[in-house]
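Running co-folding for uridine-5'-diphosphate.
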Amino acid sequence: SYRSVSSDGVAVSGGGRRVPVGLKKPPKRIVVTGGAGFVGSHLVDKILARGDSVIVIDNFFTGRKDNVMHHFGNPRFELIRHDVVEPILLEVDEIYHLACPASPVHYKYNPIKTIKTNVMGTLNMLGLAKRIGARFLLTSTSEVYGDPLEHPQKETYWGHVNPIGVRSCYDEGKRTAETLTMDYHRGAGLEVRIARIFNTYGPRMCLDDGRVVSNFVAQALRKEPMTVYGDGKQTRSFQYVSDLVDGLVVLMEGEHIGPFNLGNPGEFTMLELAEVVKETVDSSATIEFRPNTADDPHMRKPDISKAKELLNWEPKITLRQGLPLMVTDFQKRILSPQN
Ligand code: NAD
Ligand code: UDP
Ligand code: UDP
């Protein structure tokens, strides 16, 4: 642990707090940037449930107050409307840095803003972590592997990324964010963690974020055809959100910097995914083919041996188990007028 004891018998935490030895550990103060978003809000639930304090920083670009509203009134919860591209002063012990749109439709909507969020936003959060001595975790992405020439992808693979394409604001942005994180670690002695997250789904995803699982589920529920892009033979590996959140927490609290792949190795073609959605939502659901988007990776599947060995983490929930949990949430929101 990074909590150490000074010569006068006082424990000093990462945020510089002094706690008399022998007294009950006070709650940790934790920043979650992007905490009003899909993954962030589930992470906030977990941190609050174990008794620690959370400050969410979010500009509500893709996040929603609804995702964290159940914590309003909890004295250990704070929500700040703030854009991470601007500096901020806070005193905390740990920073989970998630702020960044994750769906291709969202991150391509304003690509310059996306790269500013990844570069300036990450720089600001690293500067904050350095000033206060907080531990910093970056949520990077499997997109750093680009359209991979190695399959499955290990953390040692350097990737195959187009630097000038329509996805570059996101994947090159995240690659730069990883670089910044390692440079603050090497140069300023910052305690850092890097997670490379593979496609994740679950309750609270935006209904219309254009990602494949949310699209197929919403389409099947609305009795519209599921839109399969290209020939539907491209693959992805889908992880349920609670598995990811467990992984982020063990990574933050463990001794290893990473990067670590956090994903479910269960690999599906988009046609297979459509079939599973059909079995889960509506056996009469149909599909419709659409042209694929530019630079779409042909396949993606994590090699998670490193996380298994060093973090003792692996996902527990299969697609067939996780999908119904998301469908229940989507059903409620599609039926209610304000989503
Ligand atoms: P999301 O879009 O639901 O959440 C992102 C949150 O960040 C939103 O609440 C949004 O409002 C906020 N945000 C965006 N730009 C901001 C800015 N400039 N300042 C402050 N807040 C800002 O996406 P998510 O799926 O929850 O993803 C969370 C993180 O995980 C992202 O960093 C994403 O890159 C990473 N990730 C997610 C997946 C996935 O499949 N969900 C896969 C790989 C990586
Ligand atoms: N920063 C911040 N909050 C802090 C400390 C720094 O937002 O508490 C920002 C700061 O504005 C700067 C960035 O983080 O843009 C990097 O800070 P650092 O101190 O590493 O670099 P410098 O300020 O020397 O460029
Ligand atoms: N896709 C699809 N139909 C949709 C949305 C996406 O077939 O309605 C495909 C997309 O072309 C890609 C895969 O699903 O091959 C995953 O796309 P998503 O946007 O969910 O995430 P990505 O992994 O590309 O970031």
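Result summary
The chain has nine helices and 16 strands.
The first strand starts at residue 4 and ends at 5.
Job closed.
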